[in-house]
């Protein structure tokens, strides 16, 4: 008898979906990121995710607890990941019957002991709003990335901390924006087109910026699939064209000692981490 069948011969009911909540006093980005990092270790489990941000009063916390407990059943325990920093609000949230994972308070005491300083419990500081300089750096980096997206502008290109180079649809834009938003880096991205492969040189606008360049690649199958969603049936999306461009791009990177990664199976977060480590870029945001 199959392990998926009951002893009486009836098929088992499918595994219940586990409700997951991400709670925060701010945007909830940190709670989602850290919580999803843990959930990724359980690929066989189905989750139904919901984020509840900007919990700033005890009254709101009580309402949230009601919502959390309503998700509980006799057979399913909901998971709660929280980065709420206010101690009073956090204590109210912990009244829930759900499994409560405190991503903030559970480690705060340790940090306070090491630093010999009491924490301010300032939720805004979690996302850099409390530091005007860091916030301003991120906003300027985002503006730079938008202006220099896909080679749209060559103005002040030398001010870039990094220039992403790749054939079209290899992930340049989302990676540029992520590095700007999360790390305050001024990132330009430049598309390699067929004409750029006529010689072994870097495209003219990049010839003095080789030390700032980082290349992205993909697999021909993945690139063809992504391009096909944009221009189905076109030469641009054909497997032959994608293979050609990727081969030539890889040769260009190798000839000019430009580091590169294959983006086909990597998330934006993973790509950003590898790029920063490989290029030894600082976190400015």
Order of helices and strands: EHEHEHEHHEHEEHHEH
β-strand amount? 5-15%
**Total beta-strand segments:** 8
Under the CATH scheme, which architecture of the largest domain would be assigned? 3-Layer(aba) Sandwich
Tell me the number of helical segments per DSSP (H or I, 4 or more residues long): 9
Average pLDDT over all residues? 87
Please compute the radius of gyration using only Cα atoms: 24 Å
Here the CATH topology of the largest domain equals: Rossmann fold
Strand order of the largest sheet: 2-1-3-4
Envelope shape: elongated
Number of domains: 2
- In helices, the fraction of residues equals 25-40%
Which consecutive residue ranges, at least 5 long each, have pLDDT under 50?
Answer: 1-13
- Our measurement of the CA-to-CA distance between the termini, rounded to an integer number of angstroms, reads 57 Å
What's the CATH class of the largest domain, please?
A: Alpha Beta
Tell me the major beta sheet.
4 strands, parallel
SS-based class: alpha/beta
Topology:
Layout: E1 18-23, H1 29-39, E2 47-52, H2 58-70, E3 79-82, H3 87-93, E4 99-102, H4 105-115, H5 132-147, E5 162-167, H6 172-183, E6 187-192, E7 213-217, H7 220-230, H8 239-255, E8 260-262, H9 268-279
Helix pairs in contact: 2-3, 5-6, 6-9, 7-8
């Amino acid at each position: 008898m199959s392990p998926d069948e009951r002893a009486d011969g009836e098929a088992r009911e499918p595994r219940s979906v586990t409700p997951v909540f991400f709670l925060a006093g701010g945007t909830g980005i940190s709670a989602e990121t850290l919580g999803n990092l843990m959930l990724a270790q359980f690929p066989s489990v189905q989750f139904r995710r919901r984020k509840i941000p900007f919990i700033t009063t005890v009254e709101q916390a009580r309402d949230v607890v009601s919502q959390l407990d309503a998700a509980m059943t006799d057979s399913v325990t909901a998971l709660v990941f929280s980065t709420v920093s206010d101690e009073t609000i956090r204590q109210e949230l912990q009244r829930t019957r759900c499994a409560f994972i405190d991503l903030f308070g559970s480690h705060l005491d340790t940090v306070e002991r090491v630093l010999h300083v009491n924490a301010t419990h300032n939720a805004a500081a979690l996302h850099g709003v409390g530091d005007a300089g860091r916030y301003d750096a991120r906003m300027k980096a985002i503006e730079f990335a938008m202006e220099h997206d896909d080679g749209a502008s060559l103005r002040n290109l030398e001010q870039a901390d990094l220039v992403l180079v790749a054939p079209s649809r290899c992930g340049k834009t989302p990676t540029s924006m992520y590095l700007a938003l999360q790390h305050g880096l001024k990132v330009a991205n430049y598309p390699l087109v067929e004409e750029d492969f006529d010689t072994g040189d870097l495209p003219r606008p990049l010839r003095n910026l080789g030390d700032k360049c980082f290349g992205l690649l993909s697999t021909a199958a993945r690139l063809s699939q992504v391009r096909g969603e944009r221009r189905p049936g076109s030469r641009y999306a054909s497997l032959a064209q994608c293979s050609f461009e990727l081969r030539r791009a890889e040769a260009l990177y190798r000839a000019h000692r430009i580091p590169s990664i294959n983006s086909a199976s990597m998330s934006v977060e993973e790509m950003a981490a590898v790029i920063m480590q490989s290029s030894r870029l600082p976190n400015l945001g």
